[in-house]
Amino acid sequence: MTTLSNKKWCKLIERFHLSGLTQKQFAQKHSLNIHTFRGRLYRPHSHDRQTLPSPFVQVQIEDAAQQTTPTLDLRLGSLELRFSTLPDPCWIAELVTELQGPV
Predict the structure, then answer these.
(1) Is residue 22, in this structure, part of any structural domain at all?
(2) Cα-based angle 46, 48, 54 (whole degrees, multiple of 5)
(3) Enclosing domain of residue 47
(4) Cβ atoms within 10 A of the Cβ of 103, count?
(5) Where are the beta strands (DSSP E) in 1-103?
């Protein structure tokens, strides 16, 4: 393969990021030496990654004081129980069975 300019390498690397292919697959598809391709891929400032859309989304974490505590409300007839911490599901099943009485 002929020597590529920095501009062409930048375009190739941008196409790689958008392709969804592995490095090896992309290099084979474009007749690139995998070691040369990886060298260019990881070379600092060899391309501008800021132009690519980020695969990440911004997450905003609420203040712990504003977060609600998970609760479980259990109602059986006139009985109402509220749990501020979630109990074991097997324990809840046993409790419900005992409170309902014989079937």
Answers:
(1) yes
(2) 130
(3) 6-51
(4) 4
(5) 72-76, 79-83
